[in-house]
Every structure is written in structure tokens, then in C-alpha cells.
Amino acid sequence: MDHHQNEMLATIRSDVEARGWVIRPAVDPDSGFTYAYTVGLSRFALPEIITYGLTLGTSHDILNKVAERAVVAVTAVSATHPLVPGTVIADMLCGAFPAAVIPVDDPDAKLPMAHLLFGDESLRAVQLVFPDTQWRWPWDVESDVYDQLPVLGDPPRHLR
């Protein structure tokens, strides 16, 4: 790692310590899609979260909302968090569209800063996947984004 990367990692580490998690933007070199992901949820024994195909502002809002729900849930006695693969979280986008929680097959590849901070601790991640405006999931051949929007793991059987 060069000096700039070391400084960036130190800033992220400090922000995670102060706030619990941070949101990092990125561009997928394979698809060209922008995406955003959390760094810090691993500290709470939660998977990190990633979103694709949304504006960075929308991704930031959704990731913070879901991260806060998950952290509150795991710090409460006997609560379950919303980041269980296969779960569908209602009303996540525009107050109407749900998000499917998909396990990410190779989180180290898509969450570089989380990998640098938590990679040695078996980094886990989930992707929040949204349907198109016709309520079709990206893996549906009729979807507006079929075979374009990256889906980083296997979709739940009940949504195929």
C-alpha cells in the first residue's frame, strides 16, 4: 500500500471507530456501474452491505438505514437483524420497492476497504437488490436490467 492508501485507511478506521460504520463509493471495473458499500458492520458480527445501480445519495441513505436497523437489532437482546440472506425488506426504495438480501460470493473483491480492515476476520457481505419499475428482479429475463446489473450471489429460490 502506498502512503495515500495508508492515510485513507487510517481515516476510514477512525471514522468507523467514531460512528460504527462508513459508506464507501466505488465503480465496478467490469460493469461500469457505480456502487456503494458499508465498512464497519463486521465489528458487530454483521455482514457488510453493498448496493448497485442506485445514485450514490440513494445508496448512502439506504445503506445507513439498513445498517442502523441491523446494529440496533444485534445490540438488543434476542433481536434478529434484517441482513439474513433470502430476506426481503419492504419499502426500501422510494417508499415502495423492496430489497432482496443476497449473499455476496466474493466480498473481498468488491469491498476493498472493508477487506483491508476486516479481511482477516472472514469478511461477509450481502447485496441489497431491487426490482425494476415493473417489480421484476434483475435475474428475471423480462427485467429492464437483466444481465446488466451485477448480482453478486445466488438469488433466493422464492424470488426466482
Count of DSSP strands: 6
Question: Would you tell me the structural class of the helices and strands?
Answer: alpha+beta
Strand order of the largest sheet: 1-2-3-6-5-4
Shape: globular
- What share of residues are in beta strands? 15-25%
Rounded Rg? 15 Å
The number of distinct helices, counting runs of at least 4 residues, comes to: 4
- List the secondary-structure elements in sequence, H or E: HEEEHEEHHE
Approximate helicity band: 25-40%
Unreliable sequence segments = none
Mean pLDDT: 88
The first-to-last residue Cα distance is 41 Å
What is the number of independent domains?
1
Q: Main β-sheet: number of strands, strand sense, barrel status?
A: 6 strands, mixed
Please tell me about this protein's structure.
- It is globular, with a radius of gyration of 15 Å.
- 30% of the residues lie in helices and 22% in strands.
- It has one domain.
- The mean pLDDT is 88.
- It has a six-stranded mixed β-sheet, sandwiched between helices.
- The chain is of the alpha+beta class.
- β4 and β5 form a beta hairpin.
- It has helices at residues 3-19, 56-75, 107-110, 112-118; strands at 22-27, 34-39, 48-52, 88-93, 97-103, 125-129.
- The protein has four helices and six strands; from the N terminus they run αβββαββααβ.
Task: Outline the fold blueprint.
Elements: H1 3-19, E1 22-27, E2 34-39, E3 48-52, H2 56-75, E4 88-93, E5 97-103, H3 107-110, H4 112-118, E6 125-129
Parallel strand pairs: 3-6
Antiparallel strand pairs: 1-2, 2-3, 4-5, 5-6
